[in-house]
Amino acid sequence: MSLTYHPDALFAVKVWEIEIRNTASRTLMARIYQPQGTGPFPVLLDLHGGAWSRKDRYANEPMARAIAAAGMLVVSPDMRLSHEAPYPAAVQDGHYAIRWLKHHAPQWNGDISHFGVLGSSSGGHIAQLCALRPLDPLYAAVPFPEAPQLDATVAYIATRSPISNPVTRRAQAVKMNNAAMMKKSDTFFNPPETIHEGNPHDIIANGRHTHLPPMLIMQGGEDNNVIPAIQLDFAAAYRKAGGQCQLEIFAGCEHEWTATPSPEADRSHDMAKAFIAQQFKKA
Questions:
Q1: pLDDT in tens, 3-35
Q2: Residue 5 domain-assigned?
Q3: CA distance linking residue 129 with residue 192, whole number of Å
Q4: Can you tell me the distance from the alpha carbon of 216 to that of 197, in angstroms, rounded to the nearest whole number?
Q5: Phi/psi at 145 (nearest 5 deg)?
Q6: How far apart, in Å, are the Cα atoms of 164 and each of 42, 86, 90, 237?
Q7: pTM of the model
Q8: Residue pair 259/228 in contact by the 8 Å Cβ criterion
Q9: CA torsion, points 206, 179, 232, 270, in degrees to nearest 10?
Q10: Most buried of the four, 10, 24, 145, 183, by CB within 10 Å?
C-alpha cells in the first residue's frame, strides 16, 4: 500500500525527547511527536526559527503537534545558535538532522520514502538551503558514521515566513532602524560576505541549486521583519527556475502569527497539512 497522509485524520500523539549529538557548546536535543496507530507514518523534520540567535525545539509546538495528529511522525531538533557558532553551523545541524532522522525514523514507525521538511523564519532559511543544495559538502560537513550513505534530499518543503533573501531582509532592518535585527544578521553571517553564499534567492537566481523540491511559503501580510516582497520575488525566481512554489499571503498577520491561537493560526496549520497531503498525491 502506498504511503498517504490525510489532513482530517486524528491520532493520539506521544511526545518525548532524545539526544541528537554533542557539540562543543551543548548537547542538541530533539522533540519527537509520534502518532499512535498502526502506521507506518510519513516523516517530517521541523526546523525552528528565532533569527538564528534564539529559540529551540519547542518553538513550533502548535504546528508540529497539529501535523503529527493527522498521522505524521514529526521531529523538532535543536540547532546551534549564532553566538555558539556562525553560519554555516546551524545549516550543518539541519543537514545532519535530516540524515539522522532518516536513519532513526523506521524504529519510531516512520516511513522515509517521502521525507519532508518544515521550517519557520530562520528555520525556513535553513530548510531552503538544505533543500536546494542537499549534497553540498559544506552543509554535509558533520559526518554521520552510522549511515554514511544517507544524504539530505527531501521530497518537499513547507515554510512559514522563511528568510528567503537574508540580504534584502537585512536591508529592511536598516530601513526600520532595527539595530537588534541587524546585529542578529551580522552575528550569524560572520564574516559578512557569507550572507551571499547562504542566500536562497541568489542560489536560485544564479543557478547554484541542485534540487528544486515543491515548496510552500506562508507569509504574514503585515510582517515588517521578513516583508512579503521578499517572498514574491523568491517565488517568482523559484518558478522561473522550474520549481513549484505555492505562496500564500495571510492578510493582517505579522511575523509569528502561527504560534498564537487564532483562526489564522488554525488556517496555517490546515494549509500546511493540505500542502503535505498534495505531495503524496503527486508521488
A1: 889 999 999 999 999 999 999 999 999 999 999
A2: no
A3: 18
A4: 23
A5: -65, -25
A6: 26, 18, 16, 11
A7: 0.97
A8: no
A9: 120
A10: 183
